Amino acid sequence: MIDSPLRDSSLRSKKTIAVAKYANVALPLAVDKVFTYLIPPELHQSAAVGVRTIVPFGRKYVTGLIVGFPESSSLTSLKPLRDILDASPVVSRELLNLCNWIAGYYFAPWGEVLKAAIPFGFVSSSKRVVRNVLPNPKSIAAEIEKRSPQRARVLSLLAEQGSMQSSELQKKTGVKNINVLLNEMVKAGQVEIEEIVPQQKTAIRKKEFIVLSDIDDKRLAVTLESLPNRQKKARALLLHIQQLTNQGMREIAVTQLLKESRTTLTILKSFRGLLNIVARDINRNQDYGTEEKTLTIRLNTAQQLALDAVCKAISTEVHRSFLLHGVTGSGKTQVYIEAIRYCLRHSKSAIVLVPEISLTPQIVRRFKSHFAGQVAVVHSRLSAGERHEVWRRALNSEYKIVIGPRSAVFAPLNNLGLIVVDEEHEASYKQFDSSPRYNARDVALVRGSQANAVVLLGSATPSVETFHNATIGKYELLGMPRRIDDVSMPEITIVDMTAERKQEYASLKESLPDEKRKGLRQFQQSSVSSLLKQKMGERLRRKEGIILLQNRRGFAPFVECMDCGYSETCENCNVTLTYHLAKKHLRCHYCGAVKALHDQCPSCRGQNMQLRGIGTQRVEQELASLFPEANVLRMDLDTTSRKGAHDRLLRKFGDGEADILLGTQMVAKGLDFARVTLVGVISADSQMLLPDFRSSERTFQLLTQVAGRAGRSTLRGEVIIQTHQPNHYTLQHVVDHDFKTFYEQELEARRELDYPPFSRLALVEMKGEKEEHVRQQAERFAQLLKGSHGSFTVLGPSPAVISKIKNRYRWHLILKSKKESDPNGTGLRQTLHRAVDSWTKARQQSVRLIIDVDPVGLM
Ligand code: ADP
Ligand code: ZN
Predict the structure, then answer these.
(1) Ligand 1 pocket test, candidate residues 425, 484, 676, 704, most atoms within 8 A of CB
(2) If you ran DSSP here, which 8-state letter would residue 698 be given?
(3) What is the Cα–Cα distance from 148 to 142, expressed in whole angstroms?
(4) CA 680 to centroid of ligand 1, rounded, Å
(5) Which residues pair with 794 in a beta bridge?
(6) Cα dihedral sign, 167-168-169-170
(7) Considering only CA atoms, which of 764, 749, 762 is closest in space to residue 817?
(8) Is 574 helix (H, G, I), strand (E, B) or coil?
(9) Single pTM value for the model
(10) Distances from the Cα of 186 to the Cαs of 16, 150, 151, 291, 677, in angstroms?
(11) Model confidence over 492-545: pLDDT tens digits?
């Protein structure tokens, strides 16, 4: 068993059936290698690239994937494969090639890539349940006893038990490679196998209901009469139910019923027979409904041109990439839909990537109403079982379209025609917090080219890199500069919050008696300017919807002593603590640590601690006093952490139950509400001033996106952006809806500093509990890179901008390689691989090394 180098050429060989003696197996381990095993003669027939295998590893047996058949092996003490789980490959060569590319490009262990790509494949506790399907297993067993004693043994065991786990069968029969045998029996129609994947604990899939319309009215009345008065709770429950049925309500969730009637489950259950609890799957996919409106849409000229170009490329079956640059509301989604329809007509399948946050019921409903049973939606809240089911049905071509965030790029669809990457600029396509640190947009491009499929990137605000690629002809640019029906772009106004502050100060001073004016300099400016306030008032009177963006959650992002300037920071992380109103405590947004809020400054003992800055909770509080009659929904991580909360909030707002939707960037994405005519940005500054080369780009994208939520119908939209930097070039271009000029200006800035798209970046992070060790290791790594420069420059090593997270110190090295001298980044990768190898050979156990290729954030 021992290793052979990864990224091995055997992947490229055409051979699928093992006439060879050896198999390379990828195991779900964080090591950058595959393992070689002997193929025993009895497994020659079943061993194939892409099937799962059980192999001895150490003292255990583990599940792995056969990824290739090397011609030879220099190792002598190889162990044999023990069993093969699948009768046919569960991972295509195409996907294996993709994983191989990811492993190499992103410096990720092969096993970790496979774990990300194949959601169920390595679940070691995955159980295979074997069932008898024959009417007369006993007599068949007797019949075949002579010819195939092993099969006969299995059949008679199953005849007694009905169903058994394959591991159990293995023990009882003593057949080592029982799964090969079982797969043959499946083919012969003798047994069936089901894989049970453990459910994730967090996934609540069933909900309990009482079906009110099934309740026997008479019996209810009789029962109620017979209840003695002292059984208050029981009476309250039945009375409440009576009331609900009288109102015509058809069903109610048990939790809701208990809450409303203030009773307990025990009491409810004591009425079994009269009140029956039914448990039902609350599968998100079921209640999306359909959206008739878009079914009859005829594309306009710009859409048709874009569609024609894409379909033509699909028909040639040669990889092409397109950038569909269309303003918000220009009908991009409709183009995706028609392009997918074209794929289906030509027996091809399609993947649609969307940022998780925009995967709203609205968008899903739209796709489902066009493609009904052929669409699978994947998202992070699916249980492992649900994920497995999607995978299996996509592999069997039951699903032709898979929609989902990031990991949907690995969907095992056959005959792929198209990959759509909606909002291609979104940072969430990059997995940054664990290996493999891949960018799904870029992986989509690679998969497209390997599978000869078309890739369609769409955005109203393409990333600088992507737009650059479109201008140099790497992607074909398709433009849709106008909104559907020529709805005009919203009018955007900038409000200078510094001037606003002066005014507010002056009028506050006016209104106060002399002795109170002292100390006024430190007043907290209100977060809603007078202009925004006025515009909101108008909308509220006209019952039009308002969206407010403040991209920070909590009440105040920092607490500061106004005497000495001390601010409360986290003990585990080098960041300030955010004050949260609900629990009235300070919380760290990186590690979750909490701390009480003190009146006295821990540093100077002053009594002047103030809650500074604006979080969504503060805005919510101010709105309550500014517009007491208005209904406000707050949408941020704190109000949407529970399953379904996000959808519920959106539905409420869409139905007009609330006047104002206030939230973090969540309110900027994927929403399409005709009633919204005003968008307010409480502060544009928090992102714009971050020390990151992408901060302007991010700001431009976020503001343009949120502005796009305004005026999507005949009512013209208006946008108010508040800022302390009214002259920042980013804001000016947002106001003018001028992506092109913003892009050109930003591109020049990048050129000057050799940032992408003119260079390639790799971030090397050292992380550990002892700062001294972390620093030493970072310096050692820098030494290893020395001498090999030429094609790239190294920034650092230096402490990261956030120099400590969860008690781990962080040091960074940034490698920058110019595209001019190293167009494919091969030089950079080779050097980095060499450095990683020598670093690892003499590694310091207490320090972790993380490589992030094409990082989205450098902090
Ligand atoms: P985008 O994805 O660019 O934001 P959408 O595809 O969501 O745009 O289109 C915006 C709205 O216009 C949607 O409500 C959609 O149903 C509608 N729409 C799209 N194309 C057309 C068309 N050709 N004619 C009429 N309405 C359209
Ligand atoms: Zn912390």
Answers:
(1) 484
(2) H
(3) 10
(4) 24
(5) 815
(6) positive
(7) 762
(8) coil
(9) 0.81
(10) 22, 14, 11, 42, 60
(11) 999 999 998 888 888 888 887 777 766 666 677 889 999 999 999 999 999 999
